[in-house]
Each structure stands twice: as C-alpha cells, then as structure tokens.
Amino acid sequence: MIERLQLFPLQYKLIIANVVIVIIGAAGGTWLVAKLASGNDGLRLVLLAMGFALVGGWMSTLANIWVVRKTLKPLDDIAATADRVRHGDYTARTGADPFRDPQLEQIVVSFNGALDQVESDRDRIKDLVNRVIAAQEDERKRIARELHDDTSQVLFAQLLRVSAMKNSENEEIRAVAGQLEDMFAESMEAVRRLGHELRPPSLDDLGLREATGALVQRMRDRSGIDITYDASELRERTDEAIELVLYRVAQEALTNMWKHAHATAANVTLALVDDGIELVVEDNGRGFNPHGENRSDGKGLGLGVFGMQERVDLVGGTLEIEGDRNPGTRVRAWIPLTGDSGA
Ligand SMILES: Nc1ncnc2c1ncn2[C@@H]1O[C@H](COP(=O)(O)OP(=O)(O)O)[C@@H](O)[C@H]1O
Ligand SMILES: [Mg+2]
Description:
Low-confidence stretches: none
Strand content: 5-15%
Distance between the termini: 56 Å
Shape: rod-shaped
Number of helices: 9
CATH architecture of the domain at 207-343: 2-Layer Sandwich
Order of helices and strands: HHHHHHHEHEEHEE
Strand order of the largest sheet: 1-2-3-5-4
CATH class of the domain at 207-343: Alpha Beta
CATH superfamily of the domain at 207-343: Histidine kinase-like ATPase, C-terminal domain
Bound molecules: adenosine-5'-diphosphate, magnesium ion
C-alpha cells in the first residue's frame, strides 16, 4: 500500500495528505462539537473550534512541507552529482530515492543516461587522442629514419661528387663547386637537425638525460638564452614511454619559452621525486594565464599545452603550469615510475 502511494505524482501525494487531514479534522471536530454541545458553553465551543482549526492548519502545512521536501530531494541529488562531474568525477551518478516521484524519477534516469553518454564519449576521445599521439610518434620516427637513411645519403653522395669537381682544371668550375659544396653541407646539417627534432636518436640510444641535455644545448645555440640544465639525479634509464613523454614535454615547454616568453634565462631540471621523475622548465619571461585566452584568435591555449597535458595523463602523471611567477612561467611534469605507465 505505502509502496503504491509512493509511486503517485507529487500533486496526488499532496491531495491525499490534505484529504486525510481534512477528514480527521472534520470527524474529530464533529465529534467534539456534538460532545460539547450538550454542555451549553458557547465561548468554550468557539475557542475549541478555533484551536482545532489552528492545529489542523499547522498539521496541513507541515505535511505539505514534508511531502514536497521528500519528493523534491532528488533535485538536490542531481545538483550534487552534476557538481561532482564538473570537478572531474565522471563516474558520479544520482541514486534511486525510496520516496520517488515518477516524473522526477524519469529525470534522474535521463540524467544518469546522459552522464553514461558523456563518460563513454570521454573515454572515446581519450582513446582517440592516445592513438593520434602514437600515430604521430610513429610517423615522426619513420620520417626521421627516411631523412637519415635516404635524404642524407643522397646529399652526401652529391657532396662527394661536387667535392671531386673542386679538382677541376677550370677555375670557374672550381669556384662553383666550392659554393655547391657549402650549400650541400648546409642542407645536410639542416636535414640532420630536422631528423633530431623529429626523433632524437640519443633518446632511444642514450636515454632521457642525454637527449634532454642535447635538446637544451640546441635551444641555447639557437636562442642565445642562458639555460641551465641539471639531471644529475637521473642515473638509470626508465620506461621508454615515460622517457618519451618527458622529452616531448621538455621540447614543447622550451619551444614555448623561446617563441612566447621573451626570457633571458631559464632552468631545466630532471629529478627523482616521490617514486617518480619530475621535469621542471622555468623561465624569467613575461608569463601567461594558463587558464585564459592567450592567442590572438581567442581560442585559448593551443595544441602544445593540450598535447603536453594529454601525454602526461596517458602515463598517469600530473602537469602543472604556473604562468604568473612574476617573472615567468614554470612547467612541472611528474610521472610515477611504478604503476600504470599507459601507452
Ligand atoms: N613560457 C611561456 N611564456 C609565455 N607565454 C607562454 C609560454 N608558454 C605558453 N605560452 C602561451 O600559451 C599559449 C599556448 O601555447 P601552446 O599551447 O604551446 O600553443 P602555441 O605554442 O602553438 O601558441 C601561447 O600562445 C602563449 O601565449
Ligand atoms: Mg607551443
């Protein structure tokens, strides 16, 4: 019976509660009046009737408040769930309420269904990003190998031929050959640099410490910025996926520093912290708001910061960017050495 009543919509619950109170009031009142009428006491009768009306009114109000509160409670639950989802708990759902109102119950079911959809879409996006990053790495590796194995070899062969032409009797040919030799040497250097940027061989061969050191050195040469580097704590090699993520974060953070910060000095450190590896890249440049719009197109942060965040997420690490260090920016990535190393 109670179970059946609970299934009634809100307005029927209220009507039933009120009807019950009115019936009790009417029956009780009639009984009282009949009982007191024999006593012939007019004033007492009026006072009693008023008291009765007062009590009835209060009971009715309380009953209404109680029923409405109980019935609308799922709305509070929905708000609380939405809040948890907003703060990143994508598994939060609104539970069933024993005092459920069928219409609200329908809203709860639809709301939970929408959250299921959001969660599965999010998983799919994560999976896609994961695959895009993996495909990008494969492609970079392939192009770097091709540059090294094919393009560089062809350029080298041409360089040898041109060098040979420098022994020509003809002075004009010798002069042209000299110029060509310089051009080929420059091209080979450019191809070599490009290959290193795409996929530094030192990362696979020597590990994170050396590869990041070479990256810092290249950035010093290129930008003229005074960059210190300390990775003395890092003695052993670690998981390839972790090394690659940290290298890519360092690469992006240094490129951003060079492109956007107008810095004159920077520090890069790799250290062992809390059973993980920590990378810090800090500069003394103009800083920025990592949560706001930073680009002229008003689209907020670019792919670089997004990519750093996703890569770090994939190996279970954390990324913090402080852009208001006055002066400068500090990018800190930390990746646990134990546990899920993702890709
Ligand atoms: N070290 C930094 N100093 C100042 N601004 C920065 C720094 N790093 C990033 N930014 C700002 O954040 C924005 C987004 O960076 P990013 O996502 O790498 O995109 P992109 O480098 O392609 O512009 C940059 O356009 C720049 O305004
Ligand atoms: Mg960038």
